[in-house]
């Protein structure tokens, strides 16, 4: 009996000693798997598949930046290049995060070691965001603690009518701190596997975040000064505007987390997608507290 008969009998259920060797038969062709044993890796890390999205995202960022510069200098086609880059970035964001969700949820590639790395990455990202807002606070205190003669040597500058702290700012503080409590409620509900409470907590958080954004828009519409009104207006709108943008991004993250909770993507031990959104939301809360105390209350005295 030759080797091909042995392998044929083995395929049909006949035991043979050749099964112990690294021999594979595919389409009546004999393969030896021994040289490829080194490809087998035994670790808990996730080696990502080749992806075109980093390159596409880079091209989108390049198009958006170049188009913005061309548009500001009134070059023909600058606006179209800007819009093309912006749409490309949005598309890559959606597709890339879709792939990550698939890897984590359906392919089960995000082991505890991978989750630990993701948590560290999120912590470093929040630290970079802290440095980002630190620059705005530095500019504000540099201008307010030693007012230049160009703004009258006083703070707030002459002819600047500040916003009443007890109005919309205080109301928004209540809404944002309440949203921090509801997102913590949702987080603990996921840990104890209370799906209904997690959904309710996230819905309340999203509603409070939407109310906060709406009130901030009203505040901007009724503000007695603009971004062009001295360094006070520049610091105010840059700091609060970027904070509002972070609230918008955080709201989108919470909406995606809500959808994933409804679709049963999270477990009590594997829910980093929501956990990162909750961390980001608490960071937004802390930044707002500093803005409220310094820019609105102390800066408006």
* Rounded average pLDDT: 85
Number of helical stretches of at least 4 residues: 8
Which structural category do the helix and sheet elements fall into? mainly alpha
> Helix fraction?
55-70%
Tell me the strand percentage band.
under 5%
What is the ordering of alpha helices and beta strands?
Answer: HEEHHHHHHH
Question: Largest sheet at a glance?
Answer: 2 strands, antiparallel
**How many β-strand runs?**
2
- Could you give the distance between the termini? 99 Å
Q: Return Rg in Å.
A: 28 Å
Question: Strands of the largest sheet, in order across it?
Answer: 1-2
Question: Which stretches are low in confidence, meaning pLDDT under 50 for 5 or more residues running?
Answer: 6-33
Shape: globular
Description of the molecule:
With 301 residues, the protein is mostly helical. The chain is 67% helix and 3% strand. The chain contains eight helices and two strands; from the N terminus they run H-E-E-H-H-H-H-H-H-H. It has helices spanning 3-11, 53-72, 78-105, 112-145, 168-191, 195-222, 230-262, 272-298; strands at 23-26, 29-32. Strands 1-2 form a two-stranded antiparallel ribbon. The longest helix is centred in the middle third of the chain and has 34 residues, at 112-145.
Q: Which labels suit this protein?
A:
single chain; 301 residues; mainly alpha; two-stranded antiparallel sheet; 8 helices; 67% helix; globular
Sum this structure up briefly:
By secondary structure, the chain is mainly alpha-helical.
């Amino acid at each position: 009996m030759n080797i091909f008969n042995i392998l044929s009998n083995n395929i049909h259920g006949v035991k043979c000693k050749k099964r112990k060797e690294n021999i594979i038969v595919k389409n009546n062709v004999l393969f030896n798997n021994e040289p490829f044993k080194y490809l087998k890796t035994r670790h808990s890390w996730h080696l990502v598949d080749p992806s075109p999205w980093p390159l596409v995202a880079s091209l989108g960022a390049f198009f958006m930046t170049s188009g913005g510069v061309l548009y500001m200098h009134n070059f023909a086609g600058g606006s179209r290049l800007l819009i093309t880059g912006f749409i490309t970035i949005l598309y890559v964001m959606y597709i890339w995060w879709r792939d990550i969700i698939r890897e984590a949820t359906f392919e089960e590639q995000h082991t505890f070691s991978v989750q630990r790395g993701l948590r560290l990455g999120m912590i470093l990202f929040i630290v970079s965001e802290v440095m980002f807002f630190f620059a705005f606070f530095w500019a504000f205190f540099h201008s307010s603690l030693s007012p230049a003669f160009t703004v009258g040597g006083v703070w707030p500058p002459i002819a600047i009518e500040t916003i009443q702290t007890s109005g919309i700012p205080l109301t928004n503080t209540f809404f944002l701190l309440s949203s921090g409590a509801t997102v913590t409620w949702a987080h603990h509900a996921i840990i104890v596997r209370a799906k209904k409470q997690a959904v309710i907590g996230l819905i309340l958080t999203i509603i409070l975040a939407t109310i906060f954004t709406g009130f901030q828009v009203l505040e901007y519409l009724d503000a007695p000064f603009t971004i062009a009104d001295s360094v006070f207006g520049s610091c105010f709108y840059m700091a609060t505007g970027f904070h509002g943008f972070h609230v918008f991004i955080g709201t989108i993250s919470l909406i995606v987390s809500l959808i994933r909770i409804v679709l049963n993507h999270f477990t009590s031990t594997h829910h980093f997608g929501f956990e990162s959104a909750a961390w980001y939301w608490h960071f937004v809360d802390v930044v707002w507290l500093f803005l409220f105390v310094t820019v609105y209350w102390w800066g408006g005295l």
